[in-house]
């Protein structure tokens, strides 16, 4: 039987903890009942995360109103991960370096799943989060992306069929695929699988850039037609980016949950959309907006900066006018209404 551990107690990490804690109960032949979820030592409303999850069984800071299973157990002790067989990495990409300290405790044959949406700046280029994890842990990292608003997935897991969701699993080995599918798939969260790991991960990262811009169009008061036109053109730039720089990726990946579905959801109600909208309406800074939403991280700005700098090195920045404009607005103080010149 395999033991599962999750790194990250944010809303998505906690939701995945909820999901796998429920799923293992009906799969005790394959998985151990206790699910560990690791997080930093922090408090909310005078209670530690330890007490919130292990005693109250609710992460009131990041996933309020959702009762968590008793077999989901919080820990801040890295050494407990020496017994883990499957790790789900659910950190914001800004904190990915914190994984280095886990290395000495991990099993050699561990199965790793990253749900991190973002890229990491590397010299004059960038690296995928999964590749970075592979490098520091010496593993082969699978990825899960999709149209996943954490609170909606959690409501579905409570039994509300109106909140049925899905995700795309990008895998390397068939054995990993089978184990992770059994761990994650259920009536309310359907998993589709593909070997296009790079395509899945890039779709999940690049859509955050487009969601920022979509939010700007809404914040400016643009018509729905205009905003949807921007979304379509943004999808075109994602497709072009994959074709130009990662031609081995599959065009079919764009039609999975990690592709157009995730883009639509992110442009409707995701954090990056909300920040873009607020930026256009009140010119709020990234730091102030993150504080406003409980210190949750906005992935799109850092991703836009990495991707734009990469395009400069490839002498292709003018081939991607939307990405260039998003960088200008969020990283170089360009006026928000200039976005209308990018598509």
Describe what this molecule looks like in 3D:
The chain has 343 residues and is of the alpha/beta class. It has two domains: 2-195, Rossmann fold, CATH 3.40.50; 203-341, N-(1-d-carboxylethyl)-l-norvaline Dehydrogenase, domain 2, CATH 1.10.1040.10. Helices cover 44% and strands 16% of the residues. It contains twelve helices and twelve strands. It has helices at 11-25, 49-54, 129-137, 150-157, 174-184, 197-219, 224-245, 257-269, 271-282, 286-292, 299-313, 321-331, and strands spanning 2-7, 31-38, 43-44, 47-48, 72-75, 86-89, 111-114, 119-122, 125-128, 141-145, 165-170, 189-194. The protein has an eight-stranded mixed β-sheet with strand order 5-2-1-6-7-10-11-12, sandwiched between helices. Strands 3-4 form a two-stranded antiparallel sheet. Strand 3 (43-44) and strand 4 form a beta hairpin. Helix 6 packs across helix 11 and helix 8 runs parallel beside helix 9. The protein is globular. The N and C termini lie far apart (53 Å). The model has no long low-confidence stretch (mean pLDDT 96). It catalyses: sn-glycerol 3-phosphate + NAD(+) = dihydroxyacetone phosphate + NADH + H(+). Residues 196-340 form the Glycerol-3-phosphate dehydrogenase NAD-dependent C-terminal domain. Belongs to the NAD-dependent glycerol-3-phosphate dehydrogenase family. It is an enzyme of class 1 (oxidoreductase). One of its GO terms (molecular function) is protein homodimerization activity.
């Amino acid at each position: 039987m395999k033991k599962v551990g999750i790194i990250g107690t944010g809303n998505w990490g906690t939701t995945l903890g909820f999901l796998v804690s429920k799923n293992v109960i009906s799969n005790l032949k394959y998985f151990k009942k206790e699910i560990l979820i690791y997080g930093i030592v922090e408090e909310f409303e005078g209670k530690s995360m330890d007490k919130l999850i292990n005693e109250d069984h609710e992460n009131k800071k990041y996933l309020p109103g959702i009762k968590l299973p008793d077999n989901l157990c919080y820990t801040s002790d890295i050494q407990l991960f020496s017994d883990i067989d499957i790790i789900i990495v659910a950190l914001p990409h800004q904190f990915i370096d914190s994984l280095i300290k886990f290395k000495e405790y991990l099993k050699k044959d561990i199965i790793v799943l990253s749900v991190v949406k973002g890229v990491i700046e590397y010299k004059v280029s960038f690296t995928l989060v999964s590749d970075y994890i592979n490098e520091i842990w010496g593993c082969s990292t699978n990825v899960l992306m999709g149209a996943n608003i954490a609170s909606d997935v959690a409501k579905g897991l409570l039994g509300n069929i109106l909140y049925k969701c899905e995700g795309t699993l990008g895998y390397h080995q068939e054995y990993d695929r089978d184990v992770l599918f059994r761990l994650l798939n259920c009536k309310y969260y359907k998993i589709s699988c593909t070997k296009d790991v790079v395509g899945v991960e890039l779709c999940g990262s690049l859509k955050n850039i487009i969601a920022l811009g979509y939010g700007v169009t809404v914040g400016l008061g643009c018509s729905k037609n205009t905003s949807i036109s921007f979304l379509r053109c943004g999808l075109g730039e994602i497709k072009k980016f994959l074709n130009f720089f990662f031609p081995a990726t599959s065009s079919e990946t764009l039609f999975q949950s990690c592709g157009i579905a995730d883009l639509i959801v992110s442009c409707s109600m995701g954090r990056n959309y909300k920040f873009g909208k607020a930026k256009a309406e009140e010119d709020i800074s990234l730091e102030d907006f993150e504080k406003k939403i409980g210190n949750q991280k906005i992935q799109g700005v850092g991703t836009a900066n990495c991707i734009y700098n990469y395009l400069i090195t490839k002498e292709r920045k003018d081939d991607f006018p939307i990405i260039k404009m998003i960088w200008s607005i969020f990283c170089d103080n360009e006026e928000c209404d200039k976005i209308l010149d990018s598509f």
